[in-house]
């Protein structure tokens, strides 16, 4: 199966869920035009409170639609954009990408993966028990965070549902994703 964008979402407000859009416009070095998290420095409220001068490594949030399938099998109903992601994908294992992987979205947008999203209490406020459902354990007992990945925008462009996603891995050795 080819990797594709299944939905795009954005919001000018700092809200947990983001409404789906027909398209989003990525701006190099900034993020998604009109989105509350647009900028070169952190925009997530908890990070702004700690140090508002930190670089914004969370300009674009991506979640794989396969997570929604998994959650549905556990009794949760979650749709694209409802967990705050900007880009919903299908056919790509986002969580296994290394730091620095580049994703080409649509005709011209290029983003660089910076790390994992750390699920927070807002997930349980959205649906009780959802936080536990987006956390798992690997064979060694390490926590696995399934609530998506974060990226920065290297090259701008329009991104729409149905757009192809092409992955370019960084030169090795590959670094696993950590929370950003």
UniProtKB/TrEMBL annotation:
Concerning InterPro entries, the annotation shows: MoCF_Sase_C (IPR005302), MOSC_domain (IPR052716), Pyrv_Knase-like_insert_dom_sf (IPR011037)
- All residue ranges annotated as the MOSC domain in the record: 19-168
Q: What is the official name of this protein in its record? A: MOSC domain-containing protein
């Amino acid at each position: 199966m080819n990797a594709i964008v299944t939905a795009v979402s954005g919001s000018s407000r700092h809200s947990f869920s983001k409404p789906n859009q027909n398209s989003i416009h990525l701006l190099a070095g900034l993020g998604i035009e009109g989105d509350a998290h647009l900028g070169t420095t952190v925009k997530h409220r908890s990070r702004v409170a700690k140090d508002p001068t930190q670089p914004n490594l969370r300009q674009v949030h991506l979640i794989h639609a396969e997570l929604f399938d998994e959650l549905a099998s556990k009794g949760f109903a979650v749709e694209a954009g409802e967990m705050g992601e900007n880009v919903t994908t299908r056919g790509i294992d986002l969580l296994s990408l290394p730091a620095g992987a580049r994703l080409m979205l649509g005709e011209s947008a290029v983003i660089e993966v910076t790390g994992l999203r750390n699920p927070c209490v807002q997930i349980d406020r959205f649906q009780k028990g959802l936080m536990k459902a987006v956390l798992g354990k690997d064979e060694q007992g390490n926590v696995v965070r399934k609530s998506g990945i974060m990226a920065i925008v290297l090259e701008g462009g329009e991104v729409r549902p149905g757009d192809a996603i092409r992955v370019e891995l960084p030169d090795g050795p590959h670094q696993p994703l950590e929370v950003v």
